[in-house]
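Subject: Sanity check before I submit

Could someone independently write out the structure tokens for this chain? I want to compare against mine line by line before I put it in a report. The sequence has 466 residues.
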Amino acid sequence: MINLVLTPLHYIYLIFIIIIILAMVKKKDISLLCILGIFILGLAGTESIYKSVMGVFNSFVYAAKELMPTIFIISIITAMSNTLMDSGINDEMVSPFRKVIKNYWIAYWVIGIFMMVLSWFFWPSPAVALIGALFLPIAKKAGLPAIGVAISMNLFGHGIALSSDYIIQAAPKLTADAASIPVSEVISASIPLELTMGIVTTVAAFYFLRKEIKSGEMSSEYEEIESSTSISSSSMLISSKKVRRFLALLILVLFALDIFIMYIAKLQGGDATALIGGTAIFILSLISILAYKEKSLDKITDNLVKGLQFGFKIFGVVIPIAAFFYLGDSAFTDIFGKILPEGSNGIVNDLGAALANNVPINSTISAGTLTVVGAITGLDGSGFSGISLVGSISKIFSTALGGGVATLTALGQIAGIWVGGGTVIPWALIPVAAICGVDAFELAKKNLKPVVIGLIITTIVAIIII
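---
Independent answer below. Compare away.
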């Protein structure tokens, strides 16, 4: 087993995680708790008050740097969308889909499938901006509330596509290397588990969503958020329908060209997001010139500022939370220095490894442990930081069991990414929440029950396979 000694830092971090989760359950703001957690961790590690105070600020800066690309893409897409709505082009862009998306259940599944396919090729970050800007207005008109659009995008993109990662294969390679098995084995073993997790989770989520829509229980809070982030397009600044249609087609062609370039140049993650963001800036500029004419210089700046205000308003509440949870990974050393014990892989990963070291070995316990360990390592909101750990633990467990390494590895990968990749951790849900204009914590709450149900059933399937 992995030789690891937990320190007071690990237990302090664990205590604060429990406190934060309890506060979230009671719908309390957790920013102050996260700030206190950072300070106390720094105090316990450095034994210096001034270094701990510095650490709070530096952790905020670290979190802001990590989140900045996401803040910018959301802000730019918002600015572009505002311009498209002012000009009337947005209405032309979505009109072809109205013939297909006639009700909320078609909207849920069509949006999800589009999101999944696009995310397989380019990962969810750039897909969020494209799918959200294109489908959100249509889905709302078809009766699917913004929270439903966000759920669909989350579960299909950050859940199914990111956890399987069949095209780019970054996730299975990380876990396969850690488990010392070929990537193809992890991919093959993940197929029945991904099918189970994907079907159970998306169907369960749609069932709960459908009940709320039919009973009229959708919170008025969603309507307030939606209305605050939308701009009326009743006054179309580009009067010619032919011009609007041409520009709508041009925009779709430009984004399609982006997708082609991503595939040819093998752009992933941040690079793919940058390409989408840069294209959106040029579209914003072009449409502004045509729509606002002599006022275009002022309006471009005005819409960019509004977009940035929206982005920072949405992400401002997340920075203290992200700052605390980033400390669970490599950020701790960057902020407070080399305080963790030799051989530590970060506080969160150490806690996961410690759990694996203290459970009996059989197929049921092994599968359950891999699911829990994967979920724990996903608490930092990354999804990828701990999947190498689950690969290592899978290798250890499979040696004791006499087999099943690929299935255990795939299970841990699924748990880690579904939890941390952007389905139930609020600070990882911000991109989708921002694009859809919903509250990230409410979105996490809606996703939690379907994801937990999915993980339980998927774990049972893994036990049977092992």
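---
OP: Matches mine. For the report I'm noting this point. The chain is about 80% helix and 0% strand.
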